[in-house]
Amino acid sequence: MTAPRIECDLNKIRHNTRYLVQRLGRRGIGVTGVTKAVCGHPEIARAMLDGGVTGLADARIENVERMRRAGIKCPIALIRTPLLSQTDRITQGCSDSYNTELDAIHMLASSAQRSNRVHGIILMVETGDLREGIMPGALEGITRKVMNIPGIALKGIGANFACLNGVAPNAQSMKAFSSLARETERACGFSLETVSGGNSANLPWAFGEESSGQVNDLRLGEAILLGVDPISGRRIDGLFTDAFTLVTEVIESKIKPKNRKWPAIEPVTAGGRIVSDQRQIRQSILAIGLQDTDIDGLTMPAGLTCIGATSDHLVVETADARLAIGAEVFFQTNYSALMRVMNAPDVEKVIRNREPYKLVRLPEQSRSSLALARATRSPTPARAS
Ligand SMILES: *Cc1c(COP(=O)(O)O)cnc(C)c1O
Cβ atoms within 10 A of the Cβ of 143, count? Predict the structure, then answer.
């Protein structure tokens, strides 16, 4: 098989999704699966749907169009504030979009009307992250205007936390957001279909003791894909953190001076004298680089230390074992490394477990196949080979 490649185990994506859908379902919260980190990869999107998400969301229209071309018919929301230059593509590809600008909403409305559609609008509210969002004080005025524009339907409001500022949602900010939802419902005289409370950073709040209030949706990417809490970086109990594995190949292995201030021979003017630092290390080059991923976002397998990276090379020190050229080295990635890998044309995307395993009642003698199904569920540590 070729390298570099990113392998995605769809059963782990299905499991993570189902676990979150069930746990949040008990709190009255549905899950929208966010596909932007995998560039709208249709099979990964379908695995989220298998796991029970109510719909999908992506930040880029290109990714939405990719999913539509692959035949995905479910509701897809655009979660980045629409570009005016893309309004026709947005009303064609997306059932809904998250909005903060009245001019963009007017453009979406005329575009939807021209093609006899009704486009759903969710108003994104500023809740402290200071990225996108309508200031809470301006929400009611905008709501009243949006309600009366033909071609669109006001579906609800949304909040977003911890993307730009790392400000985590807490009981107080979520209560305030629920009050805003109630005020918005009073202003428009009907109940909102969607009150979307945030992203993966909301999970500690959503799993906590506090009431979930009016919130009936979370937009989840990182938790489903990587099984971690984006703020602490820690694994969320019950989720796989290794649905994705980046596989790279060794192209050089040599013993080289430890002192990175080469040359070891000082200039001729110094008489060609050999410098005194004689320490040596084993180092290897892996064929992956800054063009392909965020090297800082890779988890180094045990025994490997990152020395540095350039556009096409990752140089590692290997403690004891020598890495043979042609050997494969496996990495887990964080969100930013995954996002760039999925967008890198030279990294092959390999999908594992296309077909969901079916839980069938097994006759007594074939327990081993059940054991096999179980074995695929236990997290495998990052490994060097
Ligand atoms: C990226 C994004 C999400 C998903 O965030 P995760 O941390 O991956 O769950 C949700 N909402 C908006 C607006 C986003 O941009």
Answer: 21
86 lines ligand 1 (CB under 6 A): no
Take atom 7 of ligand 1 and give the residue whose Cα is closest: 200
Question: One digit per residue, pLDDT tens: the chain, 385 residues?
Answer: 899 999 999 999 999 999 999 999 999 999 999 999 999 999 999 999 999 999 999 999 999 999 999 999 999 999 999 999 999 999 999 999 999 999 999 999 999 999 999 999 999 999 988 889 999 999 999 999 999 999 999 999 999 998 888 778 999 999 999 999 999 999 989 999 999 999 999 999 999 998 999 999 999 999 999 999 999 999 999 999 999 999 999 999 999 998 877 665 565 555 555 556 788 999 999 999 999 999 999 999 999 999 999 999 999 999 877 899 999 999 999 999 999 999 999 999 999 999 886 655 555 544 444 433 333 333 333 334 3
What are φ and ψ of residue 214, in 5° steps? Answer: -85, -10
59 pocket-lining for ligand 1 (C-beta < 6 Å): yes
Q: How far is the centre of ligand 1, averaged over its atoms, from the C-alpha of 34 (Å)?
A: 7
End-to-end CA distance of the chain: 15
Atom of ligand 1 nearest to the CA of 219: 10
Q: Which residues contact 257 (CB under 8 A, 6 or more apart)?
A: 264, 277, 278, 279, 280, 281
- pTM for the structure as a whole: 0.89
Instruction: Please list, residue by residue across 163-198, b when 16 or more beta carbons sit within 10 angstroms of its beta carbon and e when fewer do.
Output: eeeebbbeeebbeebbebbeebbeebeeebebbbbb
Pocket lining: 60 vs ligand 1, CB cutoff 6 Å? no
* DSSP per position, 203-272: HHHHTSSS--TT--EEEESHHHHH-B-TTT-PBPTT--S-SEEEEEEEEEEEEEES-SS--SBPPGGGTS
How remote is the CA of residue 125 from the centroid of ligand 1, in Å?
14
The tokens describing 59, both together, are 């930040």
Strands 55-58 and 76-78: parallel
